[in-house]
Amino acid sequence: MDKIQIGKFISKCRKDKQITQEQLSEMLGVTYKSVSKWENGICLPDASLYEPLCNILDITINELFAGQKIKDEDYKKIADDNLMQMLKHKLYLLSDKSISFDEFDNALTQMANVTTELKAFKDKEEAVDYLMKETGCPFEECSNAYDFYIKLFDVN
Fold first, then answer.
1. Whether the Cβ atoms of residue 128 and residue 139 lie closer than 8 Å to each other
2. Would you say 44 and 64 are in contact if contact means Cβ atoms under 8 Å apart?
3. How far apart are CA 41 and CA 46, in angstroms?
């Protein structure tokens, strides 16, 4: 989710409705400074405000997170992308946050890529051999990693 794009979209929709930041803040029970922070891409609204904000601005939650109006033909892809981003953010919030969100997101992508690669092998032995060659790690570590991915993602 691009906070800056979402903020600009909130601002545009608010202005299209001829609502001031102060009026929107009153409707939502927040300060006008909160609305300003959203519109400047500093932060996103609290999750409890998504539905009322969307109702006031006459947009869908998917359009809010996409930061744009969505054409019918693009709706499913953008909705899926937004859902995936929300899930990633939720998972990150549950983590110890010892790494940045971008690093966390990259790690999830890498895990998905490894899982996809492991699906290509006909058996564990072939997959572990591949992992050993690619990583230089010993058999036991690669075997354990394979078991972890299989269990985590239920590849088979």
1. yes
2. no
3. 14
